[in-house]
Amino acid sequence: WDRVIIEGDSLSIIKKCKVKNPDKSLVSAFIHDIHQLSLFFKDCKFEYTPRSTNNLVHILASEAIKSNRGDYLVGRVPGGAEIQAEIDRVREPD
Description:
Blueprint: E1 3-8, H1 11-18, H2 28-38, E2 43-48, H3 55-67, H4 79-91
Organism: Gossypium davidsonii
GO molecular function: nucleic acid binding; RNA-DNA hybrid ribonuclease activity
InterPro entries: RNaseH_domain, RNaseH_sf
């Protein structure tokens, strides 16, 4: 992909990611790394999403951490994520 939207449920982190000025907070090294990685994309946007709407991402991230593999989602999606996606799809208006 050359254009990405990164969503997160931490408003303070998303705000820091949107600003290109050096950050002096405790997470400054992480923000710097995020800015460096964003250079690999033509367009990289950071958007806040409330945790209550973030259930699917939480499932995917939790499963990825448990699997301890770099290719976790290549070619497949775990069953729990498919179920949550369907629940979210029903909740979202067209």
